[in-house]
Amino acid sequence: MSKKILETPYGTQDFLPREAAIKRVIEQKVFKIFKRYGYEEVVTPTIEYLETLTMGSSRTIEEHLFKMFDRSNRTLALHHEMTTPIARLVSSRLKDSSMPLKLSYNTNVFRYEQTLPGRQCEFYQAGVELLGSSSTCADAEIIALAVECLQSAGLNDFELCLGQVEFASGIMEQNNLDVETKEFLKTAIEHHDIVALEKRVDELQLSKTTADSLKQIPYLHGGKEIINKAHNFALNERSRRALDNLSEIYRLLEVYNVADKIVFDLGLIRDFSYYTGMVFEAYAPNLGYSLAGGGRYDHMLKDFGLACPATGFALGIERIMLARKRQGIVEDYRVRDIYIGYDAANVNEAIKDAQRLRSEGKVIELALMPQSEDEARQSQHDKGYNELIYLSN
Amino acid sequence: MINEPYITIALPKGKLFGLSTELLKKIGWTAENLTEKSRKLVITNEEKRLNFIITKTADVPTYVEYGAADIGIIGKDVIAESGKDVYELLDLGFGKCHLMMAVPKDKKRPNLQDYAHTRVVTKFPHIAEQFFTSQGMQMEYIKLNGSIELGPIIGLSESIVDIVETGTTLRENNLEEIVNIMDATARLIVNPVSFKLKFERINAMVTELKKILQSKYKMA
User: How many CB pairs under 8 A join A and B?
Assistant: First the structure.
């Protein structure tokens, strides 16, 4: 006999009924909001060609992908996020649709990385992409939608940090830095490796204003006043436009009535090889990583042959589940209405009763063999059903 | 301050502990009985809403990455070895040391490349591997938790990769440094989400520490 393998592969997990029910409820709530904002669901294959998933990404995403070969030895990979597959879809089969296009998804994605609670190799993401609009209204809608989704998932204690990658890019443009240096500085800002950032900036012997601006970026964090403060460090039109863009988005978010959740954070630049405008991430206390994230990515679709501005975001379903748990939200969505037991003479009656009650929407468990009334009561109790119906003559 | 959430600071046992508490005290971040000998696991300053935890050196980045501690003080060597995702906000300047490769004096080879495919004993296998890979060298890494210099003496390895402060241990054991891998000092590290959600207090702390470090630097 072969050895029994009972564990799941590294970075994967089972959802037992209680957790699976919570997950389903969260997904349904989120999807309802997506729908109300006019986003329609698309489903793409779990596997894509490796070249599709790595398209346009200068980052070393490839080492984090789960890869395999097809019959003709082309490399396939499990999708690691949904923005790229949707970009492929929109640039091909949907390229003639009337823009803007509003699409949503809810799927498992795969990344090979070190696992932590809430950070597995296989995890679930729900999100939206808004394609074909470069207006600030589109960005504001995405952010308002993200806030509403988190609230509808039962989270109230969270903060949404909002940044703009063009602000940092503008400052770097100022000194004709070479590509490698820019990359180093952006990576240092993104990871808040401030020791490395300051050291490199000092080595570069930039003008004092540029050096000060670069060093300040990670600390430009806070309320509305941060935008004014940041203007002192904006050295050119590009940076100033980025700040004006944030002000305008914020103004719209005030109208959406979600501005109280927003914190400006110009040190937030996420994956800069990809984002071109506003970026955001949502955080909750007691959870060491973001719940949701997104931003504007106007160049990505060009790589697939369709020049098209785009913005969007994704939510981490397991992370929302974990944040709820840590905020003390305890619940059980499993419904168990009636257990039906019967004696040997009443099986037909019992089936008819069960079907009638089920058609009324009740959750019914029908005994699978005749029982005594005591046995039936015991079963009802063991399985946690609210009521017992026992049929006997 | 009553409803303000606590800030938890992880401090490493050993030589960085005294220097860290001394520095934090200067900005008023301290607590009664904050000593290495304390039997309490969490030492609290209720008035200032601070918790201190004292942990093993190598565990500081872990506490901070998971957000169990908001802030930690730890050597750059330990951060680099852990590969943890934490924000590194300040170089505190103390705890200066460097990570280097050393071999027995009498078995020294002409070039670094001559050590390819040999065995190296170290507490820092990740940093060592990154370094040798960047040199295009494959090595056999043997992880030990202490008395690294014993490795080549008893024939467990051809070389060691270890931390050096003064070089006394190397000399006593007839070892010679052949290449410097990285310089390290103590760093202030912060959990990324704590940095965002507790920004004001952490930013104020960093600003005050910076002032102290700069004035110290000028004096030196």
Answer: 53
